[in-house]
Amino acid sequence: MNRSANLARIATLVAGFVFLYAPIAILAAMSFNASRLVSVWGGFSTRWYAALFENELLIASAKISLAAAALSATIATFLGLLAAIALARFGAFRSRMLFFGAIHAPLVLPEVVLGLALLSCFVALGVGRGFATLVIGHVTLTMCFTTVALLSALRGCDPTLEEAAMDLGATPLQAFALVALPQIAPAAASAFLLAFTLSLDDLVIASFATGPGATTLPMRIYSQVRLGVSPQINAISTLLLGFVALALGGSALVMQAARRRGL
Amino acid sequence: MTGRRRLSLGERLTLAIPYLWIAAFFLAPMLLIAKISISHSVLARPPYEPRFHLSDSLAEMWVKARTLTFENYRALVSDSLYFDAYVSSLWIAAVATLATLLVAYPFALAMARSPREWRPFLIGAAAAPFWTSFLIRVYAWIALLKDEGLINNALMALGLVHAPLEMFATTGAVIVGIVYSYLPFMLLPIYAALEGQDPSLREAAADLGASPIDVFLRVTLPLSREGVIAGALLVFIPAVGEFVIPDLLGGSDTLMIGRTLWNDFFANHDWPAASAAAIALVSILLVPLLLWERARLREEEGRR
Amino acid sequence: MSAPLLSVAGVTKKYGAVVALDGVSIDVGAGEFFALLGPSGCGKTTLMRCIAGFETPDGGRLTLKGEDLAGVPPYRRPVNMMFQSYALFPHLNVFENVAFGLRRKGESDGAIRARVGELLDMTQLAPFGARRINELSGGQRQRVALARALAPRPALLLLDEPLGALDRKLREETQFQLKEIQRKTRTSFVIVTHDQDEALALADRVAVMCAGKVEQIAPPADIYEKPATRFVAGFVGETNFIDGVIARDGGAAFVTSFGRLPRAECALADGARATLSVRPERIDISREGEGIAGRVEDFVFRGEYTLLRVRVAPDVVLRVGAYDGRFAIGDDVKLTIAPDTGVLFAEAA
To answer: Which of chain A's residues have a Cβ under 8 Å away from the Cβ of B183?
Structure first.
């Protein structure tokens, strides 16, 4: 590539990454701004982080969000694995088209529609909304993502490995558990992470599906943000960003280690 | 695999668990929404009539069923608020999709032409913001776009403007928000399409006399068509139904159907109207999807 | 001969309209090194998968050690397979790969360690037990696949194109190793291959297959020298096919467009149309003397010998192997086909 083309390429990359990262970098910087105003730099301070730890409502909602995310991601990954196995391995079973459509539809529908449907359902059944319905809502949403991720991983599995296992004396179930599952383990971990992040971050479905006493962190942030910029929100946003960055870095290391082991 | 096959007991159990879940918490609720959309709005909990109960006799059910109406759908078309909201949503989503494409394409191209060892790191860094909170990323733009926000402060400090530019609470802000939030969805398919291109095709074109611009317009761009279409759909379809971005960054005159639906449901408690709007929205969105799927299948057949 | 270890009787298998196996019958003895040889699509892979249990025949019987294999799933057959792609488990190291079949049988840790050690020694993989699969070379992976398949002491081992992925030098070494291991373990080996060199070099007996049928079963030398059908003659080794008519006046002779070739013995009737298959190395060539007149048109130097294309008639070019003497394009030569060389095939009716 000649010099000017190379320069253009690097300039584009820099511009792109600045666009992507500047807003969140600025947010992180603002969280350490002693002054409440965005326009004035009042010196470096961690007072907003300190205030965060006294903000009981915010802390409570963070706990709810983390618990809901962990629980719903676990259930969604499990359901997604079963659904992916059915779609990848069971051939053209009866009503496969309907199942396939029902799994993929929430991926393309606007979340308000899904939320609406869930809420109507809970009310019509007379079910009290709270943490349980919140988890149900999140599982229903994220299950579609985990199914798609695991389906693609299962399709990439080498069938001759399972044949070899059966040839050596493993029953089909053993062959699947001992040979196919380890192969898709990285994809399952990544699907879990995806479901966790989606749940942690979700606002719309949570608003429809949850009840009093189970307010999630995004819901709290949202209600505050509607009133304007708030330095405590800056602080918790930065914390969340840091948390996600660590998780991403951690999972990248895990993937690298797995790759080195030949998976 | 060809033909239907009967499933073993274990297989049926494996299928049943996720199937029951999705039937109970997606299919059934969607049917319920469809039913609500043809019901009347009343002041009650839940705020619609008729309500069917398991204890109803067939005659009672028939009487209730006869009160169902398509009034809500008629209102969608006649009520200018809904109609305007739809048109506005489609328009805003289309503009935002185009803007996202214009930002994402050069970025993806630059990444795909980078040295091989760098590419996984670059694409990882570009996709990483996707993993952080959607809400927070939109929120970050509030601080940037407000009258007393950073961009205006910088512009005024540099003397480029004398009064703050009205950027916040505008349709423009919504578009910027959509571009920013949905960029990875456009970036990844285009990058995948570009990265997979055989470089010898470009070399062959150059060898036959094509200038770099020619090579791009006649070889690179056409071959990346599928990635562009995939990215465009991945942005456009969710953008039409977006709620958070227009609510936080948009003004009172920014009409988007997601917001209208939300307000109808939570503020006005008009569930039948909201349900009808939701069903209509889903139908509108299904059309481009089905067309794309049909075109994709036809291309696969042709290739075979 | 004692009862065969594996008996394939009249096995048929169809995929829709395509007939993959058409009444195939083969017997493999205990401790025998057997080869299924044929071009792609001849059905050898289908037959192998039927024996292993991954496909079910539509008709016929498969018997192993006297027991019918019908309905027996692959994980319960005393048959193991060495896959063409090796199919080694990437998440397990070498030791665990080889131990896999033994663990499924539920053998004790001590017994497993002893048996795996034995096999690793046999395949010269002793220092590699803890290695991961992706750290091994192609040849090492092949040996792990072999060790893994032999560990559960199968009565029959199926090898799918075992030498295909190896380069030439490695292939020769591995051929000797395979024969040695087969003799030592006294397991029946059945290799499935399209490579005739592999089949002829390794097997005690070869079954040549074509289009779902068995053309000939015989030891390698017989396959080569006395091919039973035209297909076998053409598929194995190089040969010349010469068309002509049988003449019986006095002695038997084969009348071709370029001359009359006396034949030592011939079962065909006078006037019968036939094809004579003669290998290039069996045609004698000299510059002068008696014989069929021809002119050298082209040649290919092959190291051990030179393959000459000699035109003997306007429509006939014979391929002749020359082992000494140099021949140039345009040389006039004399060819001799001895009366007892080559095989006559009657023209199909």
So the answer is: 20
A-contacting residues of B 111-150, CB under 8 Å?
111, 113-114, 122, 124-126, 128-129, 131-137, 139-144, 146, 148-150
SS (H, E, C) C27-38: EECCCCEEEEEC
ipTM for this prediction: 0.85
Within 10 angstroms of residue B116's Cβ, the number of other Cβ atoms is 7
Q: Which two tokens stand for residue B157?
A: 């400090």
Domain count, chain B: 1
DSSP B252-275: TT---HHHHHHHHHHTS--HHHHH
Question: Which two structure tokens, joined as six digits, stand for A262?
Answer: 């030949």
Q: Are B206 and B215 in contact (CB under 8 A)?
A: yes
Ramachandran angles phi, psi of C337, nearest 5°? -115, 110
Q: Please classify residue C287 by burial: count the beta carbons closer than 10 Å to its beta carbon, then call 0-12 exposed, 13-18 middle and 19+ buried.
A: exposed
**Chain A residue with minimum CA distance to C74:** A167
Torsion of CA A118, A124, A130, A132, to 10 degrees: -70
Q: What kind of architecture, by CATH, is found in domain C240-346?
A: Beta Barrel (2.40)
Which domains, and CATH codes, for chain A? 55-260 (1.10.3720.10)
Q: How many CB atoms lie within 10 A of CB A142?
A: 29
pTM: 0.80
Q: How many CB atoms lie within 10 A of CB A44?
A: 9
Euclidean distance between CA atoms C291 and C340, whole angstroms = 15
Whether B47 and chain A come into contact, CB under 8 Å, resolves to: no
- Residues of chain C with Cβ-Cβ distance to A160 below 8 Å are 83, 85, 87
Quick one: average pLDDT of B200-226? 87
C70 close contact with A: CB closer than 8 A: no
Cα→Cα distances B98→B91, B95, B182, C338, Å = 11, 5, 12, 83
Q: Is the pLDDT of residue B155 over 70?
A: yes
Cα nearest neighbour of A182 on chain C: C91
The CATH superfamily assigned to C6-235 is P-loop containing nucleotide triphosphate hydrolases (3.40.50.300)
Q: Which regions of chain B does DSSP assign to beta strands (E)?
A: 40-41, 48-49
Nearest to A93 among B5, B133, B238 (CB): B5
The three-state secondary structure class of A226 is: coil
- In the block, residue with structure tokens 């916040």: B168
- For residues C120-132, average pLDDT: 93
Q: Which residue of A has its CA nearest to C52?
A: A167
CA of B242 to nearest chain A CA: how many angstroms apart? 7
Residue with the bigger pLDDT between A49 and C147: it is C147
Q: Which residues pair with C320 in a beta bridge?
A: C308
Nearest to A26 among B25, B111, B150 (CB): B150
Domain spans of chain C? Answer: 6-235, 240-346
Q: Residue B280 domain-assigned?
A: yes
Instruction: Say yes or no for a CB contact (<8 Å) between A16 and B103.
Output: yes
**Per-residue confidence at B197, pLDDT binned at 50, 70, 90?**
confident
Q: C133 vs chain A: nearest CA distance in angstroms?
A: 7
Q: Does B222 touch chain A (CB under 8 A)?
A: no
C81, A164: Cβ pair inside 8 Å? yes
Select from B30, B68, B70 the least CA-distant residue to B52: B68
Largest CA-CA distance found in chain B, in angstroms, rounded:
80
What is the dihedral sign for C-alpha C221, C224, C225, C230? Answer: positive
Residue B17 counted as domain residue? no
Classify residue C109 by burial, with Cβ atoms within 10 Å: 0-12, 13-18, 19+: exposed
Q: Which of B128, B243, B285 sits opposite A108 (nearest CB)?
A: B285
More confident residue, A167 or A235: A167
B8 CB near a chain A CB, below 8 Å? no
